[in-house]
Structures are given as structure tokens and as C-alpha cells.
Amino acid sequence: LQAGLEKLRDLPAETEDGQRIQLQVNTGLMTDITRSLERGAEGVGLYRTEIPFMVRDRFPSEEEQRVIYREQLAAFAPHPVTMRTLDVGGDKSLSYFPIEEDNPFLGWRGIRVTLDHPEIFMVQVRAMLKASEGHNNLRIMLPMVTSVTEVEDAQHFIHRAWLEVREEGVDIPMPEVGVMIEVPASVYQARALAQRVDFFSIGTNDLTQYLLAVDRNNRQVASLYNSYHPAVLHAILHVVEQAREEGKKVSVCGEMAGEPAAALLLMAMGVDALSMNASNLLKVKAAIRQVKMCFIRKLLSEVLAMDNAEVISAYVDLQLDKAG
Ligand code: PEP
Ligand code: MG
């Protein structure tokens, strides 16, 4: 743990004037559990289920998945654990399920793969549901959603899986189901999506990549990959506003959420939770505990009036430095 920050572990993530936000973690490996609990995480905002799939040489069975998922759910209970359904394709590949494409980021990835393979989806959702019995802290999240049809189809399968496991005697309520907002289409469909789901989580890693048409892993264009780009900031704000108008919770789980300055802007936009790598959690909490809402709201409104990512980034750093 970072020196000096561990004392923040059990203190709330709240501004000097008492505005609270939930700080959660992104997990994938078993080792993430201990690191997260040591830092006082209030649940998991993104459990990347593809990670246990990637470290194997075949699809894990329903029972194998149930055991893995139960460890996450049990470790964080009563806090929520947001399990993302399998997000392969793009930059995430499985050796035993090869996908060959010219444009993987625009290809068969995320929800597209699992809706084409309901047998993979059903096994995974059934395992999640069974794993949550007794804890009831499961939330299911769908990756790479671009249309309401995908949400409706996925909800249909989730409902069917829920009926099946209930029939088999597993006593669990229907979990909350949400979507990741990580492609431009979902930004412009935010209202319609919010009407159909329980929550949003904004995936700023992919959202930045797709809004700016900049490959998130290509060094050649890395200097163009900037989440402070006005297009990205305005897109996030729009999504937050739409979710709130529909009375739905919204969080951010991309790398931006774990970057203290960006986290403050996201908080000013009104997000309910920030989910990040455990290593960033106490740094973000420290930043939140040092500001007042009026300060970060003013900063946000100044930033939203600017039209240049580099200027925004420099301005935010300067203002936060000045504020100490
Ligand atoms: C994202 O796209 O911002 C995200 C959190 O998901 P991943 O990084 O796993 O694509
Ligand atoms: Mg993503």
C-alpha cells in the first residue's frame, strides 16, 4: 500500500462538503480480491470474466465457472459485484476459440459473440446466478452493446437462465442487468437503453478509442488517444444526464475513473460510482477528500467550454495543483 494513504482505507470517499461517491474495483484474477479488500473497495464495478477464460485451454464448465464466480461474490458481499458477460474478440482472444478478422475492433466481439453462441452465454449466466445464491449481490453487465435489440435478446436469455435455475431449486432474486456504454452508438441511444436496463457503466477505454478512431493499443497513434478530448467528455456527460433522467445508476469503469484528476471531473458530472484498478483507489479517494463540490463543478463547467484536449488536460492539472 502507498505510504500515507492506508489511513484512508476505512474513511468514506466524500468531498470536504460531504458529497459521497462509491469507489469500486475492476477485477479479473483471484489476486485482485485481496488487493481490493485491503484498500477498502465498496464492491466490484467490473469483473472481467474473460480473464478466467483466457488463462485456460478450453471453455470452463458451468460448475468451474460457478466456483470462480462464487469466490468474487463471497469476498465482496454484501457489496455488489458487477460481472460482465464474456467480452472476447477485439484485443481479447481465447486460444481455443480463434477469431481471425481484418478489423477485430470492428468485428465479432463482446455481446455479438455471445448472442451468436447462446450456449456459451447461458452456461455463463447460469453459473453466475447459481454462484450468487445466499449473497444476492450479483449484477450482470453486457459489453459492447450497440442496439436495443442486443439488450432485449440478452435479457431474454438471462430471464430464461433465471427460470431454469429457479426450477432447479436455486433460490435467488432476478439480478440487476446493465450495459456498458463504450461505443458511440450507445451514447446516442442512451435514453432508449436506460429505459430498458437497471444501470450503465461507461467504458471509457473503448469509448475513447471508438469516438476518436484511435486504436487503444497502437503506439503510433498513442498521443492522439486522450480521454480529455472534448468529444469524449461531452459524450460522457450526455450519458450521465440521460441515465439520471431515467432514474438509473451510472458508473465509470474505464481507466479514466482511476486517474485522480479525471475522477474529479466524472464526480462533478454526477456519476454514482467509479471503478478502477485497486492500485489507484486510495489515490482517487485522497483527491476526492481534498475538494469541495463547488470547486469541481466550476472546474467541469470551465473544461466543458474548452475545445482542445491538451489545453483541458493542462488546465485541470494547473487548477488542481493550485488548490493543493
Ligand atoms: C472499457 O472499455 O473502458 C472497459 C472498462 O472495458 P475493457 O477495458 O475491458 O475493454
Ligand atoms: Mg471495453
TrEMBL record:
Cellular compartments annotated: Cytoplasm
Family classification: Belongs to the PEP-utilizing enzyme family.
The protein's name: phosphoenolpyruvate--protein phosphotransferase
Full protein stretch here: 423 to 746 of 758
